[in-house]
Amino acid sequence: MKVWYRIRQWFMAVMIGIMTRQPKVIKGSGSLARIADNLEKTGKKKVFIVTAPVFIEWGSLNKLFEALKEKGIEATVFSKVVTEPTVELVMEAFGEYKKAGCEALVAVGGGSVIDCAKAVGALRATGRSIPKMRGVLRVLRRLPDLYAVPTTAGTGSETTAAAVITDTIDGKHYKYMVNDFVLIPRYAVLDADLTLTVPAKITAATGMDALTHAVEAYTNNFASKMVKERALDSVSLIFKNIPLVYEDGSNVEARDNMLYASFEAGIAFTTNFVGYVHAVAHATGALYGILHGEACSIILPYVLEQYGEKVYGRLSELADAAGVKGASKEEKAKNFIAAIREMNEKMGIPSKIEKLKREDYEEIIKRVLKEANPLYPCPVIWKKKDFEILLDKLIKE
Ligand SMILES: [Fe+2]
After folding, report:
1. What's the CATH number of domain 22-194, 3.20.20.70, 3.40.50.1970, 3.40.50.720, 1.10.8.60?
2. Residue 380 CA, ligand 1 centroid: distance in Å
């Protein structure tokens, strides 16, 4: 079984290495408004802007609107995305896109906003319905240029090849993915000004989500040279900057570094997947309503510890990037895990999953195995009993 898993994972790694691409980066304070320059350069006269109502309310897009006006570029704004987009919402947005004759997309917001814009782009590119594009490699056509502008540093949505869509079939709600490399945004716009108002708790959770992306992509098997470089840089930036943005949210330079770290971690996991930390975070997060990043940061040190000596080498390299010292690979690896625990504690992130209940183990493990095996090339392949051991460490009794 394990050999078959590894062959499948190696094949996926090769395929992704061939097919993936990276967004071009427009970065730095004020880069949101610079989208207008790029649209002008690429000859686009009509742009469709997808966002959440709150960003219109706060005036977060005003500088972009001014810049577009100055260049004579017409903007159509769709600001109805408040949660994961439904098929109906995407269809409504696409209707407005077509009506206005838009030629490019700008998405300003979190994962849901960026996913909605990706789905609109996929509809424009293919003329197919969303359910027909469900699954892997069902789009296969170039989307209109998409500028993804994240408003938190962590999810890495500006780099990913997937859009999560909610659908209703026979009265039941389903969540599914449209997954295709053509969905990777053409541009990632990393403007720290948009993240300055993110509260400390969300800053901590999303930042630790980014750290988990980098660490899981790096410790997974089959990490390419590019994945390793991106992940190491991301870890180095996060260790230096997360304490700064947690203490002072208005530190633009540190916010800028966190956005770039999140982008790099996004590239790393889009290419080499996440791992068991994410699988357990998804299952427990859905059951108990825990913030995704917070769930990741609680679970991360326990999973790394349980991988044992198999990951000492890889963790010691991450420790070097993070500036964590040790006399041997084993000591560096252990000190790196301890440093993650210390960061969690300083940012008020709990060390256990407080709502975890023993009677839910079975359901959690069922979901985790379904998500992670054989897809994620984790450094050690775990079975049911390994997850029982892990959950016993995470439970607060
Ligand atoms: Fe994540």
Report:
1. 3.40.50.1970
2. 20
